Amino acid sequence: MPYTLKIKRQADRVLSRLSRPERTRLTEKILLLANDPDSSELDVKPLEGEPYFRLRVGGWRVIFDRQDSLKIIAIEKIKPRGDVYK
Q1: How far does CA 66 lie from the centroid of its chain?
Q2: Domains contained in the chain, CATH given
Q3: Cα separation, 50 vs 42, whole angstroms
């Protein structure tokens, strides 16, 4: 059973401003994450010292919270690699 996706306003704004190819690539990975967060096709790691995970998509990072008991994935931030961890 797939997870429910919740996308915060900041992440949604970033997605809407991207070029179509980048937006499509990120959206495909996010949908794959919702269908199977443990998929071997995804580059997902827990963030050290924080309750979040990161999904790597090229030069972009998607920071998300995963609640397995409720089957919810909340996308917190989408930022370029250099800016996301500041």
Answers
A1: 10
A2: 4-84 (3.30.2310.20)
A3: 20
Which position has the token pair 């500041």? Answer: 86
Q: Say which residue the tokens 């919740």 belong to.
A: 6
pLDDT in tens, 9-62: 999 999 999 999 999 999 999 999 999 999 999 999 999 988 999 999 999 999
As a 3-state breakdown, the chain gives helix, strand, coil percent values, each rounded to 5, of 35, 35, 35
Residues 82, 4: Cα–Cα separation, whole Å: 28
DSSP 3: P
CB of 45 closer than 8 Å to CB of 53:
yes
3-state secondary structure of 38: coil
User: In 1-86, which ranges are E strands?
Assistant: 4-7, 44-46, 53-57, 60-67, 72-80
Written as six digits, the tokens of 17 are 């401003």
